[in-house]
Amino acid sequence: MAIKTVSTKQEHQSTHISEEAPDFVQLVEKIGKNKDKEAFMVLFDHFAPRLKSFLMRGKFSEDVAEEIAQETLLTVWRRAKSYNSKKANPSTWIFTIARNRKIDYLRKHNKPTPIAEDLEFSQLIHPNEAYIRKERQQLFETMVKNLPGEQAEMLKKSFYEDKSHQEIADETDIPLGTVKSRIRMALQKLKLELGENAKLETL
Amino acid sequence: MSHANAQKQNDLYEDVLYRYAQGHLVSPLAVVINAHMESHPKAAHFVAGLEDIGGYFLENTEPDCPVSDHLREATLSKIGSGEAVSPSRQNKTLAKIEGLEDIPKALFAYIARSHKALSWRHLTEEIEFMCISDAPEGQTDAFFLRVKPNAVFPKHGHSSTEITFVLHGAVHDQDVRIRKGDIKICNETDEHAPKACPEAGCIALCVYEDPISMDFFEGLFN
């Protein structure tokens, strides 16, 4: 049975986790087209531990982190058909699903009157088709790798450890203004700037 | 707008988009940012880029720990059993609001999920109000305003972040014009008395990081 083959694969993967990464676009497309379980489990083996670690860094307990990691990957399974590689890298797509699941979880547990659960922000996030990530993915990764360590660290704390600017400042003992300016410099290097467009028309 | 004000508005705007990408905005604010991005590709690009950063670290950071064996088996059995099929999509019906021709897609589910019958209520001759908030009784964190041309909203301060999202017409506020699709952010240090533009008046959605009390809100009109 296919399941057995997959189990062996997990053992292999868990010990050689940093070996060459599988082609995630292809895996998601296989899941979307053929409900390919084997492809799904390869994706699971790569992302489930990473999602769990990401969520635990964001202060979720181990149980909750596993629950959200699982829900995230089940969403990938369900939505793979609508995945568009032109709009998002698989890892970005998975990141946004996990982030939204996290919001759902917090809403369910902190707020007495949650809004509709099927309101998934990720479905609507990128209305602009012109943003072709695939083409710039490699360039982008190179740019992130080449950021000065202190700037990359700020971004990692923001988006992987889920910390606010203030929390980063408190934790690192770096003034808030410096945290912000390092992040701004990093974003400039990654060509992520709002520029003039941020401005409202002056009367 | 003075240079300092413009700089502050830009900083608030960038900050709110950043927090959106992190998942740090409460839902009414996040929904409004989503709606804003539909007509502001530059904002959508910025957020998409930040999400790429999130995806990059997620993919490339070695995990701190493995998942339990049980999780793997349980997930496999869920996809095998069909338990993980798509839930039926609710809220497909078009959201409708009297007086509005088109509503951003991002607002459909948010409006449609409201259990309340949506109808406008006059606060004054010129200003109407429609609450769509889930906040506890006596409070609100999301409502629409329909304001006649040139009518001015009473001057007020803020106890948390407020985002005004314009859906029709325009709002003139602190020397800027907030047009359809634009957002204007106010925080604790802002006091303002926004005014509907002379041509078309406005319909706007106002959302709050912390719910405000209806007594405070209605008190503005007495």
Structure commentary:
The complex is a heterodimer of chains A (203) and B (222). Chain A is an all-alpha fold. Chain A has a domain of 113 residues: Rna Polymerase Sigma Factor, Chain: A (Orthogonal Bundle). Helix content of chain A is 65%, strand content 1%. Chain A has nine helices and one strand; from the N terminus they run H-H-H-H-H-H-H-H-H-E. In chain A, helix 3 packs antiparallel against helix 4. Chain A is globular. The N terminus of chain A is likely disordered. By secondary structure, chain B is α+β, with helices and mostly antiparallel strands. Chain B has one domain: Sandwich (Jelly Rolls), CATH 2.60.120. In chain B, strands 1, 2, 3, 4, 5, 6, 7 and 8 form an eight-stranded antiparallel β-sheet that branches. Chain B is globular.
List the helices and strands and how they pair.
The complex is a heterodimer of chains A (203) and B (222).
Chain A (H helix, E strand, L loop, with lengths): L1 H14 L8 H11 L2 H21 L4 H18 L10 H21 L22 H13 L3 H11 L5 H8 L3 H14 L11 E2 L1
Helix pairs in contact in A: 1-3, 2-3, 3-4, 4-5, 7-9, 8-9
Chain B lengths: L2 H20 L4 H13 L1 H20 L8 H13 L23 H8 L8 E2 L4 E5 L7 E9 L14 E12 L2 E4 L3 E4 L8 E2 L5 E12 H6 L3
Antiparallel strand pairs in B: 1-2, 2-3, 3-8, 4-5, 4-6, 4-7, 4-8
Helix pairs in contact in B: 1-3, 2-3, 2-5
The major pleated sheet of chain B works out as:
8 strands, antiparallel
Order of helices and strands of chain A: HHHHHHHHHE
Largest sheet of chain A: none
- Return the average pLDDT of chain B rounded to an integer: 87
CATH class of chain B: Mainly Beta
- C-alpha-based Rg of chain A, rounded: 19 Å
Quote the CATH topology of one domain in chain A. Rna Polymerase Sigma Factor, Chain: A
Q: What's the shape of chain B?
A: globular
State which percent range the strand residues of chain B make up: 15-25%
Secondary-structure class of chain A: mainly alpha
